[in-house]
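Handout, section 4.2: multi-component inputs.
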Amino acid sequence: MVQMLLEGTRDTLYMTLMATLFGYVLGLPMGIVLAVTDKNGICANKIVYKVLDFIVNLVRSVPFLILLILVIPLTRLIVGKSYGSTATIVPLVIAAAPFIARMVESSLKEVEQGTIEAALSMGAGTGTIIWKVLLAEARTSLLVGVTIAVGTILGYSAMAGVVGGGGLGDIAIRYGYYRYETGVMIVTIIILVVLVQILQGLGMMLSRKLDRRRREL
Amino acid sequence: MEPLIRVEQLCKEFQTKDGTFAALNNISFSIDKGDIFGVIGLSGAGKSTLVRCMNLLERPSSGRVWIHDRDIAQLSPKELRRTRQKTGMIFQHFNLLMQRNVLDNVCFPLEIAGVKKKEARKRALELLRTVGLEEKASAYPAQLSGGQKQRVAIARVLAGDPEILLCDEATSALDPQTTKSILALLKDINAQYGITIVVITHEMGVVKEICNHVAVLDHGKLAELDTVAEVFGNPKSKAAKILLHGELEE
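Output:
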């Protein structure tokens, strides 16, 4: 039993962290494009913004459970099978990327317009502004975003247990729900709570440590 | 003296809910190389819009801005970036990078210009010495006072080795004492490096303190343009009189 719970924890962490990583590989560029093409952005472009905005909303409005089933053919194509923790990463990434894109967009929009204008007035190009002004100045907010994303993805990964997704959610559903072993279910929930607390704490600590906007250091 | 900046029939309109609003209406004047040129007017007179047209943070609706006999609206994006590197700007709210320390803030324009890191740091330290903030090199902007932040902004702008310095209400957020010291610093910079300075302000005191010439803006129109002595001694426009009398009443 302990062995199973340990493996479940490992699988949950594996799914969560991989999905967060790939979620950012997709979501970060999307968020940047959203932030810079919006009407006050440095590359304002109504068409690009509207198209991306629509796609993000579209994917975000599909409930995760439905998405999980909808993308099974794609999962088979990429991973070779549709169950297990590696397979679950595919729908997790697809669900997380637009959500991450929105958080990145909103973090980058918190950067003062004046700071961006100062960089423009110095002759900075778009790449410099994205890299050295937007991402650098918004880093605290971006890290808070990562923390939120990890927590949300962890929750989603547990949901994937319904279709044999592996990890703690899987165990909770198989033992706790189908076999009425309430004890196991409660233990998995406690582990999930502890994981979220640890990840949340780490994320917030890191973002505070990297924030230079306070008077006291 | 040759004119460095020429503004020609400049108009800027903004679309608002209640129709078109003309922020600038047919403004023409020129600024000589090495001059300290003031643009004064009440709030909403269009001064900020005018100065923002000089580095194309704002695109004019019509008319032209020439720098060195080149129409800046016709520049390619690359040429515009290069022109902006030589046209520094400082702001009312300083607009420093809050997540970078003072030294790295001053290094920023040098990074943009592709200067090597070691060289950039050396140059940035020299400039911090020029503005009297050498010992704050590793502090962060949040730990500085307003006057210190503006000094950092000035050091940062000087790092780009500009020919022109645009000051958009650069002293409006500062107390009178600090304003005086910042103005003295600007005067020094003008004398030492021969940088042409354009000062946007709503305070006559600022104009009196450092400018040679002044343009008075009134509701987007150029009301008066002359030497500071002439405008102060013998104001002709209503706007100039109001600005002067307001000063007297204080």
